[in-house]
Design goal:
Order of helices and strands: HHHHHH
Helix content: over 70%
Number of helices: 6
Number of strands: 0
Strand content: under 5%
Radius of gyration: 32 Å
Distance between the termini: 82 Å
Number of domains: 1
Structural class: mainly alpha
């Protein structure tokens, strides 16, 4: 579902940029776009450095552990794709910056529109993938919370069960016996 939305949004942006944004106007935005994409790549590298969360893994159920680690591996793969897409976008923007707006103005109209569309599409794709990974990170944090809360609940249940067993054993060891209770009598008896 998210991939379909990303593809649709990317193609829409590509078409809109090719149709409505002249390449000459985009040259003024190249430097800020290069900075923004570089920051995105740096953020992804920082996130990649985190790796697996530091948890007491043995306290989690094996199936839930596998679900969490599989989710983390999938999102890490997404990080690799984001770095690749951003590298292509950065290389394209730097190449176009080196070519310059004056030389690009000499290109045929169709080529200029195609390049403007490609720039718009690539930048949109980079932003969409980054947003998707942020959403996936939030999803993984929610999964971690559910697993940790479940482990804490089990730990609390075990502790309370042990305390109750201890109290029952204490009562039994006190040799307490039930007292015979006679039925109540009426006032006049």
């Amino acid at each position: 579902m998210a991939r379909t939305k990303t593809i649709v949004v990317t193609f829409l942006a590509t078409g809109l940029f090719a149709w409505a944004v002249p390449l000459a106007r985009l040259y003024g935005a190249f430097q800020p776009l290069i900075v923004a994409l570089s920051i995105m790549v740096a953020a992804v590298f920082v996130r990649l450095n985190r790796g697996m969360p530091a948890l007491e893994w043995k306290s989690l159920e094996p199936d839930k552990r596998k679900e969490l680690t599989a989710s983390i591996v999938r999102v890490t793969t997404e990080y690799g794709w984001i770095i690749g897409i951003n590298a292509v976008a950065l290389a394209s923007l730097v190449t176009l910056s080196v070519i310059g707006g004056t030389d690009a103005a000499l290109w045929p109209e169709g080529v200029r529109r195609a390049v403007a569309g490609a720039v718009g599409g690539l930048v949109t794709l980079c932003a969409a993938r980054m947003a998707y990974v942020v959403w996936r990170d939030i999803d993984i944090v929610r999964l971690q919370k559910r697993l940790i809360d479940g482990a804490a609940s089990r730990e609390l249940d075990e502790r309370e069960r042990a305390l109750a067993d201890e109290k029952v054993a204490s009562i039994r060891s006190a040799n307490v016996r039930p007292v015979e209770v006679k039925p109540p009598k009426a006032w006049g008896e």
